Amino acid sequence: MPPRTVVIGVDSSTQSTKAAVTDTETGELLAVGRAPHVVTGEGGARETDPEVWWLALCDAVAAGLKESGLSPSSVVGIAVAGQQHGLVTLDRAGRPLRPALLWNDTRSAPQAAALVAELGGPEAWTARTGTVPVASMTATKWRWLRENDPSNAEATASVRLPHDFLTERLAGVAATDPGDASGTCWYSTATGAYDPDLLERLGLSVSMLPEVAATGGTRIGSLTESAAEALGLPAGIAVAAGTGDNMSAAVGLGLGGAGLLDHPVLSLGTSGTVFAASRTRPASTALSGFAGADGTYLPLACTLNCTLAVDKVASLLGLHRDDATPGGEAVLLPYLDGERTPDLPTSSGLLTGLRHDTTPQQLLGAAYEGAAFTVLRALDELLLACGLDPADPEVAGRPLQLIGGGAQGRTWVETVRRLSGRPLIVPGSGELVALGAAALAASAAGGGDPVAVAARWNEKSEDAELPAVERDTETWERIGSVLDRASEPLLGG
User: 332: part of which helix (H) or strand (E)?
Assistant: First the structure.
């Protein structure tokens, strides 16, 4: 019997790094090493020193290998999936000039509005990049940096996304993939390349950016001697281009050209997202029209306030996160960090509908409902972007895959089930972002199409399938009415 070979899929998220040691042949998750990150900032600021990510990657890989009990010599490839949109600025020696601006840093909302106006409105941006700039996007953060920290902007020799920065540390090659690049708003999903006019408008040049590989599973180089020493891995193993976290989750689920197409996914994490892999290039100003990691498209809607916002409400009420009941007449829009969908970057939370008999448990349930409603309302727009009719019974009955940390929470699952009226599938494969990155690493090591690799691995996965329940249209309409009627002064938008 040939010796076991493994790949390492790295999930570098907002709060931590996870390194999944995965059997190359079966996809068995042998071990997961973890290391935390530090996020700083008050108000709209959210920043992390990129060196923290690198140290956490080293620690997580070491922990994963130790837990697996395998020799480093069994590792044949590695890939990184990172939080999208973050702005990393490097000097000429490749060192970070300042902490990275993270995806949930909302200070660049004025710059986003200015960029939208400069190009002629949302439709113009959708036609070019697939995505309308909001405060989350990298282009708006770069514009903010030039206006508010001009000395560091002027000193910037290279601009990277979080996963690009880590991949370059691994292979010594400046590379990215279409998926993560499509979240910058300076990459065109229409042409599949950086948009020279937009770069000029932003004061960037192609020479400052990484080369875009064909897919996230493309081998862009080999692990360098210095990186191998830091990680305790063999030098020369395959390094994949990697991708953004949402694109990697899609790969981990087997969504893409060699797998499922047009099947919606709802991810419940720090942010709430709904996405699907499609061959149809999305053209909706309400969505982020991203590229997939495998050459498909990944239309996506994202909300800033999901599990952390609801946990904050639970903490304020002194309740356990699952000590919740349906909200009754209460409506709570938990926009504690501003909001991205709808685009209300400076908004705050809104509570209405209180009565004498409203209970703390109902208030917590209302927070769940408000967060779930916000991301579920984008689902019809997502389906339309995939060329589907949401009213078609076949489409309406298509299962919604539920992933992320919230998918393990009873109240999250039941709230989504009740408000969507759809059957749910909770995949048995854990750590989907890291698993997708592992499939990218396996592809780079010679394993073929990464989506096909993940789909083969998933054949042995034991998924939880929950039948549809009658949709709670009363709660749905009540929340929608509040959101639609709330003026900017009420929401602080």
Answer: strand 331-333
Cβ-proximal residues to 232 (8 Å cutoff; 6+ apart), any chain? 61, 62, 65, 72
Which residues in 37-188 belong to E strands, given as ranges? Answer: 47-48, 75-82, 88-90, 100-101, 158-160, 175-176, 187-188
Q: Which residue has the tokens 């991810």?
A: 267
Taking the CA atoms of the chain, what radius of gyration do you get in angstroms? 22
| 251 to 19, 294, 296, 374: CA distances (angstroms) | 16, 8, 11, 25
Dist. CA 347–CA 345, nearest whole Å: 6
What is the spatial distance between Cα 139 and Cα 300, in angstroms, rounded to a whole number? 18
Backbone angles phi and psi of 473, in degrees to 5: -70, -25
Res 340 pLDDT > 90: no
CA 146, CA 141: separation in Å to the nearest integer?
Answer: 9
In degrees and rounded to multiples of 5, residue 30 shows phi and psi of -85, -30
Q: Are 18 and 33 in contact (CB under 8 A)?
A: yes
Of the chain, the percentage scoring pLDDT greater than 70 comes to 99
**Residues, the chain, total?**
493
Any idea which residue has 């400052």 for tokens?
A: 208
Distance (Å) of CA 436 to CA 13, 15, 20, 40, 216: 14, 19, 10, 28, 10
Give tens-digit pLDDT for 354-397: 999 999 999 999 999 999 999 999 888 898 888 889 888 888 88
Q: Which distant-in-sequence residues (6+ apart) come within 8 Å of 413 by Cβ?
A: 402, 407, 424, 426, 466
Q: How far apart, in whole angstroms, are the C-alpha atoms of residue 206 and residue 309?
A: 38
Residues classed as catalytic: 245
User: What phi and psi values does residue 327 have, to the nearest 5 degrees?
Assistant: -70, -10
Helix (H/G/I), strand (E/B), else coil: 236: coil
Evaluate whether 227 touches 72 at the Cβ level (below 8 Å): no
